[in-house]
């Protein structure tokens, strides 16, 4: 298989023109760039600089970039049909290059693993098995299905693929908090942490280097351009996974360096300077169908333990009307001793009014982040009337 090329239609539109005198060092206008059909505002000096910075970061990694292109030639044909099935734009195939360099065995310092770099709790929430001897995060097809479910959900909540990509990196709760504080829903103008502020530009850099590198001949070193001209051959997935360990290590160290960077402004990404102690949106508002229930009877703190909760207010869950006083019989699906979190799941709701049992799968979520799994409570919390937020599955 030859070098991957972009569809011609993707480059057929002209971007907004801008004054090159405002961007020192650029000898000619940058080509128009799009992410999922949304034009990147390269007429803004800071945006153009961030893209050039992301492209330049690969200038000394020509060997690693060539290996990534080879793996992409093998793995993109697997990823692309799955993205299409979920109606996720094809540009998201570049996201796992940023996350893991398409190395299935890549593990981050925080414990995220696999091609799409899921944390264990998130992976379980998305339907992947993560247990001793089994880790479906390392399975390309299964983890891509999970990533598509997550991306589809993020887009449904945020209304923008650009914001969905940012939320994939930073979490929807954190991103919604930044949007609310800054009253701005445009990724390119939001003040975000250093890693998230660079995230989309890194995705765009891979897309441009793989498809449109000729347009950046004045910005990229000749050694990298020569490497990008070399054709790549499609390999069997097992062969493509046969990579040097230090390449995966390089990805992890790069993530650590971004998180520890003392001066995020150095790469033109301004931090969010507003106070961080403002409450994030409640999960009942973030998640359509979020409801609340108070503990009535505590069960055993172990897998399979049954706990009983009563709804505290009327609401809607998965387009089903629920009423204050309705009862949930929830089981503990899992306990993560490492993070101190417990995972509750309820499959049925007993309605107080009609005295009927209704099938309604629900899961308890952290009200501050909207993610499944909540901190294991202490006895005083439970005595005070422990109340959890639930979302329909």
From TrEMBL:
<protein>
    <submittedName>
        <fullName>Lytic transglycosylase domain-containing protein</fullName>
    </submittedName>
</protein>
<dbReference type="Pfam" id="PF01464">
    <property type="entry name" value="SLT"/>
</dbReference>
<comment type="similarity">
    <text>Belongs to the transglycosylase Slt family.</text>
</comment>
<dbReference type="InterPro" id="IPR023346">
    <property type="entry name" value="Lysozyme-like_dom_sf"/>
</dbReference>
<feature type="domain" description="Transglycosylase SLT">
    <location>
        <begin position="90"/>
        <end position="187"/>
    </location>
</feature>
<dbReference type="InterPro" id="IPR008258">
    <property type="entry name" value="Transglycosylase_SLT_dom_1"/>
</dbReference>
